[in-house]
Amino acid sequence: MLGRMRMSISEAEQAYKELSEKLFTPVKGKLNPERIYDFLQANGKFESEPLETHIKIKLQKKGFGEEELLKDSDPESCKVFVCAVRAEDGSTAVIRSYRSRAADSLYDHCKVWEAARATSAASTFFEPISIGSWGQKFVDGSLKFANPIELADTESAKLWPDDDRLIINIGTGSAPGRAVDGNILDLAKRLKDIVVDADERSDRFRAAHPDMVNAKRLFRFTVTHGLGDIGLEEWKAVNRIATCTETYLNNTDIVRLVDDCVGAMKAAGQRLGIAVSGRSPGS
Fold it and tell me: Is the pTM higher than 0.85?
């Protein structure tokens, strides 16, 4: 929404609030035997069509066609990628808006709504999606990359190999634990091998890049308390999410970290000749 569809943060927040209630309506009732069977088989318990439909509506409102490709022909545009997992073998798929040297069969085929569906297809929530001429199946990439900071580092280094990069890593405040494909027993076995906690990835990355930390070019923000028990589908908990987030952002150390981050962004913008404004205290 932010990068490819050119939405503002306010527009993206509003779109999310509008979508959440409509998307997370169970396909079947809690006591429906078919729903129990679907759970055991790790089938999606929410309809995928409303998500696809509303993404297309948002595209139209921003002046794009419903079948707009994620591929972006404007060389000056924001570079965007989403992480998904191939359902057939559990391997990582990076779906990009920009051309890469890597083998990328989806670049000329994947649509915006398909990319959004792929990265939203958490098993037991939404069904996998088939994309491209070969009909490959994709599910949510958070299983292997709950925190895709390494991918962001690798992709940005390829795009700008001679530049210093500033990485802002924003977490969800809760640990991952979702499945890929197949029945529930198969999923449990795979989770043991491929689910890695987002905060652990952040800690390892920071330890491996002390130069970025010391130069204030690496920042991590994630709500530390209150969100761990809120599920992906609990749209009614948006007030709790907002409260926990505000409490986190009002912490003295976090306020200082936000100021450092804004200062680093401002300095980078000035070096690139981009006009930026400062951040007033308390904003």
Answer: no
